[in-house]
Amino acid sequence: MREFRILAFGASNVMAYGLDDPAKCWPMLVGSAIQAEHNHPVTIVRQPLFIEGTDPGPYITKKLAEHNPDLVLFNVSGPSFALKTVANSVGRFAGKR
């Protein structure tokens, strides 16, 4: 039986920064719940993703091809996403300062 593969992208709460036990971060808990519910092996790969950086498209595409997941999870923090998108919107509206 092939394992069910989960690929999770995100920042600190995906990467378990600040937790004493990485098994307590939410992607690992999702994987554990799937494994318990379906009695099926689950592999979880966590990848850092910081939305305020450069275009994440090529990085995400590369990781998808590398891991061939059955499920992809994204977690983007509100402040980081808002800073990037609001700044771009304001820039288009008001011009560069």
Summarize the structure.
46% of the residues lie in helices and 19% in strands. The protein is of the alpha/beta class and 97 residues long. The mean pLDDT is 85.
What does this structure look like?
It is built from 4 helices and 3 strands; from the N terminus they run βααβαβα. It starts with a strand and ends with a helix. It is elongated. By secondary structure, it is α/β, with parallel strands linked by helices.
Main sheet specs: 3 strands, parallel
Helix content: 40-55%
Q: What characteristic shape results from the CA principal axes?
A: elongated
Distance between the termini: 57 Å
Weakly predicted, low-confidence segments = none
Enumerate the strands of the largest sheet in spatial order, edge to edge or round the barrel.
2-1-3
Residue fraction in strands: 15-25%
Instruction: Return Rg in Å.
Output: 16 Å
Number of strands: 3
Structural class: alpha/beta
Distinct helical segment count: 4
The average pLDDT is: 85
Q: What is the string of SSEs from the N terminus onward?
A: EHHEHEH
